[in-house]
Amino acid sequence: MARPSKPLISRASAVAASIEIIDSEGLDAFSLPRLAKHLGVRAPSLYHHFADKSEILAAVAQEIAGNIPLPRRKPGPGWPEYFVTLSSNFRKSILKHRNAAPILLQYLPRDLLIGSYEDTAQFLEKSGVPARLHVQILDGMERLTLGAVLTEAMRKPSTKNTIFPHVDPESQPLLARALAENEFTSRQLFEEMIRSFLYGVMRSEPAGQTEELTVSAN
Fold first, then answer.
1. What is the separation of C-alpha 75 from the centre of its chain, rounded to a whole number of angstroms?
2. What pLDDT does residue 8 have?
């Protein structure tokens, strides 16, 4: 389709409008004609900035997940808490746009959560984390965080007592008791999962090398 000679909208406004439509009406309602109508233009105007619908959706994923606040924490022995905060910020941002979860699953760039791999590796090195653990940490963080957050986003919001929905106290008494005694919210459970992974990486090191993580970071 031929593009108009002069753009009538900006790329940023098209992405913002796309997110508004998806948030309010759902992903199935999103289309190029629907977006053009929302912006008050004809569909060909969108081709000044995007080759097709797929490129718009990729830009939506980038916008939603690409502006996560970075934690203000210096390298040191408490380095896992940097990633706990980063993952929690990512979770908060994604859950604001639950309808976009399928888009994120398909179009989210792999390095978007961690940011610059080189910068993160430098943070780990300055924290005293051996280079042999960096790939395990970075790969594990992305898999764990993205999987958990996108799965949660595609479900209905839950409370402490409905984390496992439709539990029957008669036929599932142990699970019902566990839910009744659970003190964590969904956010807290998520953060504890991230901590368990990261501190587990440290604990899996031989005793002498685990001490090295702390000593070399001071």
1. 22
2. 66
Distance of alpha carbon 16 from alpha carbon 113, whole angstroms: 20
157's CB contacts (< 8 A; 6+ apart) are: 95, 186
Separation between Cα atoms, residue 87 and residue 146, nearest integer Å: 9
Q: How many C-beta neighbours within 10 Å does residue 89 have?
A: 16
The verdict on residue 2 lying in a domain is: no
Amino acid at 152: E
- 112: containing domain: 79-217
pLDDT category at 107 given cuts 50, 70, 90 is confident
Are 39 and 9 in contact by the 8 Å Cβ rule? The answer is: yes
Output DSSP code: residue 160. G
- Give the length of the chain: 218
The top-scoring range by mean pLDDT among 31-40, 107-116, 152-161 is 31-40
CATH number assigned to the domain comprising residue 193: 1.10.357.10
Mean pLDDT across 34-61: 90
Higher pLDDT, 65 or 205: 65
Quote the pLDDT of residue 110. Answer: 66
> Are residue 61 and residue 152 in the same domain, yes or no?
no
Q: Which helix (H) or strand (E) holds 165?
A: none
Instruction: Please count the structural domains in the chain.
Output: 2
The helix (H) or strand (E) run that includes residue 121 is helix 117-126
Establish if 53 belongs to a structural domain.
yes
